[in-house]
Prior knowledge:
The complex is a heterodimer of chains A (175) and B (512). Chain A is built from seven helices and no strands. With 512 residues, chain B is mostly helical. Chain B contains 23 helices and two strands. Chain B has a two-stranded antiparallel sheet with strand order 1-2. In chain B, helix 2 runs parallel beside helix 4 and helix 4 packs antiparallel against helix 15. Chains A and B meet through helix 1, helix 2, helix 3, helix 4 and helix 5 of A and helix 5, helix 8, helix 9, helix 12 and helix 19 of B.
Amino acid sequence: MKKWFAAALFVLAVGYTAYGLTTQSLFTSSGRPAAGFFPLVIGLLLIVSCAVNLWTDVREWLSEHAAGIAHIHQVDTASEGTAEAMGLDTEALDGGPEFGRDVGIVFAYLCGFVAILKITGALLAMILFMLVFLFTFNRSHLVSNVIYSLALPGFLYWLFKILLNASLPKGPLGF
Amino acid sequence: MFADIVSNLSLGLSIAASPEGILFLLIGAFVGMIVGLFPGFGPAAGIAVLIPLTFGLEPTIAIIMLAGIYYGSMYGGTITSILINTPGESATVASTLDGYPLAQKGRAGPALVMQAVASFFGGTIGVILITALAPSLASLAASFGPSEYFLIIAVGLLMLTTMMGDNKFKGFISALIGFAVGTVGVDVMSGQQRFTFGSPELIGGVYFVAVAIGLFGVGELLHCILNGQHREPAKKLRISFRDKEFWPSKQDYYESRYTFWRGSIIGFIAGVLPGSGATLGSIIGYSVEKKIAKDPEKFGKGEMRGLVAPETANNAASAGAMVPLLSLGIPGSGATAVLLGAFMMWGLQPGPLLIVNDPGFVWGLIASMYLGNMILILLSIFAIPLFVKFLDVPYVNVVPVIVLLCVIGAFAINASIVETWILVISGLIGFAMKTYGYSPAATVLALVLGSMAEETFLQSYIISDGTMSLFWERPVSLVLSIVLLTIIAVPLTVATLQRYRSNRMFSSDDKA
């Protein structure tokens, strides 16, 4: 996935620069830098650095592929570096097995939550998200899941809507 | 000068010590300690997620609360470092080295109390140094022109990326991404729209709070899920300050008497330097203490000085990081970048004139840090059993709290569903960045400073008629340019030399 992320960044960098070049002017009629000047500088730097980055990641993948190395867990490299510098066990900082499928599920639930936010209203959307989430990952506690799914959204709705007078989407039931 | 400081601090205390100030400082410190307790969820994420909760508050009170979360997390992060060998956040990694062995030796109580005392000492020394240095630096910075400002931003970002070990290049890309996102909206110089795709909601630019909450809050949450934190059972720990063995001995204090000072000074310097921050400060503090010790073999086996050094350092560093923020308007880390964004959200104009134009705000914040450290030492000692109880909450129950706060908070800022989707996208990008070695902190820092960087860069370009001579004609600019080039040149030279040496070794092996 690392190389795909690097590839996506490279494509975005090219798109950003090309779109900037076609929609913005680089210099004003008096020869001063215009709105497109700074984005062009950033865009060019992004293209060059993302291309080098993509090349490095692909080369790393190719060499790992050739050596038959399979990535089981992608640790937090910053923490890994710190741990290494201090002679610590990386696993103690940020290790263990990988739960990519769970990340996908939580992200899908998050998207669903935001998608229904304006349709059902904030309170109902929060309750639905919590019920679905807890019944996926914490199935053994049915009663406490229901209580928690009602109590936390209720508290947050009161905090934001009543106490802080923040604007939250209303559903067909008026909340 | 001393009289000025006293009168300014009195002004600050009149704001921070008001009932409202104390209440929100207490809330901030308490929440900060909880934020510090949960591994993987750092102060930047904590501040970003909780910014929406400060709506309706007076700006100074809101920032006092957010700053309380920032330095409170340094106190809280150590509790898990000592008790379960898991640092609550990266700045407390060094505290595990001797903190956990101390707990294994049955000295968890003294270790927790000493970390609280060390944190208080480091934090207070840091705030005293802010009081002395911030106004002087601000008056010096008042003479800075656009070239100096651009170079300070560039140096700060480069230092942040060079601290990333093998991932400097990815850190550099992260900063560029932040700059690119920062160009969305109306151009400050010409008033022309850029990258808005016809959306009226993007005319004002990509709102930083949604991006920061997404990158730090959702991104870190998804990363914790990837590591399976949500599948881990709760840790059942019990500790009571009524135990006989809870308090440190006189010998603990006596042996650490110089460590308190050394750690504080090292940490403060690390905090002031842009990009280094509390994590590096605590690591340097620990390393120096071990190097100069007559008995270095004791370190790593439950030595109290090995806990005091990183603890004083990380708290002094978190205070030190406020110096460039308050005097130059330039943050040096992800957490202070989010704080700067909050300043802007409240209509404050960061920079050297902030102290002159808003003395109540700046001195209120500084005075609150003195009070905050006092509150935190009391919380850290007498509420330890309560904070340990928080570790009983399984992470699976913490996840929905964070998601709801992120989504509802992002929507509530401007009642905008577009910004809520920006939060979701930023969350996914933040997760990928954290997982693949990029730096969300550099992205947020560049996003917050993007318009300032562009404005000062173009001003320098125009003033010097396109020659950029302003970068070496002014003395301060020249020094900063040299520093900038050194930061770029040194790692490149070292890498080239290493490659050259390894190539030579291989070729001599082949010949043999």
